[in-house]
Design a protein that fits this description.
Bound molecules: S-adenosyl-L-homocysteine
CATH topology of the largest domain: TIM Barrel
Order of helices and strands: HHHEEEEEHEHEHEHEHHEHEHE
Oligomer: single chain
Helix content: 25-40%
Shape: elongated
Structural class: alpha/beta
Strand content: 15-25%
Strand order of the largest sheet: 1-2-3-4-7-8-9-10-11-12
Number of domains: 2
Radius of gyration: 21 Å
Largest sheet: 10 strands, mixed
């Protein structure tokens, strides 16, 4: 899973490379091996944007190597929500803009990272899908999001959720390379990372073969096939039975509990019969359900259920012994909540810092 740096290459981004690769790279540049370790430390711990910042390097080489591509993006815009969540618009080297969200609590700093520019899945309730799909993110573009959030908050990142723009399992090589880097180079535990997927046939099984310690979250959102197809066009190619079968295999192969995300849309998928159906599917399944009350987006007029309806749905599942919790998304007031991220233009009038 390591990133191969071409010999003498200074155009391929350094971010995402392992200690071994960085050591090989400095040696190819005629430098002693220990400079690889220094580069690794400055890249991942100090968060340099250019090799010229590495003051422990000899001045002459620092100047030559300054043209090497570290692979950092720039912050085009950031907006702070009332709960302290910050949404970042990051500008990539090719000018594309992606969104990343930093969510602080007393004990944690969670980064919600994007895996693609836009998203091809076109789920009806999700803003990202409405802006179409442009391309997969490269490994360094994923890692960079985490470093950017860490730099701005000036604290250690404790958790990563692949719940930003895009479908991570359609960019699995780069996502896994980023997981390796975040884990081994930056020191974030795999168990503190969650990969969220809408489900792509065959891909959950394939992911299971990597035997990672990361949590897999599956965006279920419906208790039966008909309803799921209405909300998620790609579900037409993936029956709910096949999805559950792969999920069961995942639990068997990894020994890890799985999360199911269930978006709550008032009067559409939050009725008692839906709770009953969902409980039937999940009986005996080693899983945890996260209910996400719908966060409004402008293109569609789904309704967010009020707290009472959410509570009723939650109780109906609890009574049936299903492990469940409600996730009230953070950052709602700056459109940084689940499903509200888009490859947007910089918004007029929002807070600039
Ligand atoms: N493509 C991945 C990850 C991206 S979205 C996936 O589908 O899982 C992260 C979560 O936010 C998913 O569960 C997604 O369905 C949910 N989501 C999308 N739009 C939403 C909205 N408007 N309100 C609340 N959650 C939403």
């Amino acid at each position: 899973m390591s990133v191969q740096l071409a010999p003498q290459s200074i155009s391929q981004p350094l971010l995402g490379a392992s200690l071994e690769d960085l050591t090989a790279w400095v040696q190819e540049q005629g430098q002693p091996a220990y400079r690889g370790k220094q580069l690794h430390q400055w890249l991942y711990q100090k968060g340099i944007r250019s090799i010229s910042e590495i003051t422990v390097f000899p001045k002459a080489w620092r100047e030559t190597a300054a043209s090497a591509n570290v692979g950092r993006s720039s912050i085009a815009h950031q907006s702070i929500a009332s709960d302290g969540t910050i949404k970042f618009l990051l500008e990539l080297a090719d000018g594309n803009i992606i969104e990343t969200v930093g969510m602080p609590t007393d004990k944690r700093l969670t980064v919600c990272v994007s895996s693609q520019v836009g998203c091809p899945m076109a789920c009806d309730f999700c803003a990202t899908g409405k802006s179409g799909f442009l391309r997969n993110l490269e490994t360094h573009e994923i890692v960079d999001q985490v470093l950017t959030v860490r730099d701005v908050f000036d604290r250690r990142v404790s958790n990563i959720v692949f719940m930003g723009m895009g479908e991570p399992l359609l960019n699995v090589d780069n996502v896994l390379a980023a997981v390796r880097c975040l884990n081994e180079d930056i020191g974030i535990g795999q168990r503190s990372m969650t990969i969220s997927t809408v489900g792509i046939p065959g891909h959950i099984r394939r992911l299971a073969q990597h035997k990672l310690q990361v949590t897999l979250a599956v965006s279920l959102h419906a208790s039966n096939q008909k309803l799921r197809e209405k909300l998620i066009p790609s579900a037409r190619q993936y029956s709910i039975e096949d999805l559950f079968a792969e999920c069961r295999e995942y639990v068997q192969m990894t020994g890890r509990r799985l999360s199911f995300e269930y978006l709550l849309l008032a009067e559409l998928n939050d009725l008692p019969e839906h709770a009953e159906q969902l409980a039937q599917h999940l009986r005996g399944f080693q899983s945890h359900v996260n209910l996400i009350p719908y966060n409004p987006i402008s293109e569609v007029d789904y309704k967010r259920p009020d707290r009472h309806r959410v509570q009723q749905f939650e109780n109906a599942l609890k009574e049936r012994h299903i492990a469940i919790s409600v996730r009230y998304s953070k950052g709602l007031d700056v459109d940084a909540a689940c499903g509200q991220l888009r490859a947007s233009k910089i918004q007029e009038g929002s807070e600039l810092r």
